[in-house]
Amino acid sequence: MPKRKIELTHLKRMTDDTGIVEHALGNIPRRGEGYATDDNARALWLTCTWRHRIASDPTMRGKAEELQRLADIYLSFLCHAQQPDGHFHNNYSYDRSPEAEEPSDDCFGRSLWGCAVASLNLPHPDSRFAAAALFQKGFRTAEMLKHLRGRAYTLAAASLLLSCNNELSHLPRFQNFIREQAPERVEALEAQLLTAYEQNADGDWQWFEPVMTYGNGILPWALFHSYQVTGNSDALLIAEETLDFLIDKMTGEEGQVRPIGNRTWCTPDHCDHWDQQPLEVMKLALAAEQAYTALSNPEHYLSVIEKCHAWFHGENDLQQPVADSDGGCHDGLEPGGMNRNQGAESTIAYLMTELIYASSREKALSRA
Asked: N or C: which end of the chain has fewer CB within 10 A?
């Protein structure tokens, strides 16, 4: 774990016995705006990963138990959100009733990824069984996905379960399901991302879409995952090319991380720098971590992870810390200053970046 102690205070503040509340006013949960399933999927991923990292440390037993309690809440939320056809309803009011919406591929993919991580890392066999059951029910409908980020999350999730298939021996039926169903789906989803790149990359524009919008790091991250399963050299080449392109677009004049802004995004002609969201920084760190694992000369990507970590602690365009000592994170940087609200997405993005930073440092020490 990093020298800076990571706190659960704000994560627990945002979480009630139903799930994590989506928005905050300052650091106070804004309950009237309800819950989002994709935030609960992210929170499940975070708490499972965090707990797994500290499980063998007897001095961290109390925190491990807190993380387990939170993970159970988030997994239960996903159980409630999954529909009979396998997709996950995303938006719920504070009274737990579903709000009107069109099904979200992004929510679907994030939920499958959270369930995949939980099926591998939760300590109780019945909890792993529940996560696996949700994944299996959802995965049967994955061929209906139309949008790249939903496909990318699903690709990464299936690839993870294939690469860790031996760890599913406690769930033999699920293990067999993954062996039988995932390889073909991984190849199809990987091919869809590669096709998107071939259709949109042109000259100096090395990207999957004509506009770089949100959560960009997820796309090369997914290809790094699938490469570990398929061994497709084209997937590895394009993952590296697009990640390096993204790093270039997210680097300021002084070398600091500068997220692509969500006002007009980034095109071949112009790249907006405002507003800057923590999610973008975490996704860049996530992709760089996977590149660090997959490539033989990864020092460049370790530096990227360190800069992403530093962004949250003041090495950004406003020279202000975005995260605080409670483990909360402000919702972004704006030209006129910081967005003071500390919603679920931003807080989870910060905490995940801390874990990515810690993991990458440990890998670097082991390689030294």
From this structure: C
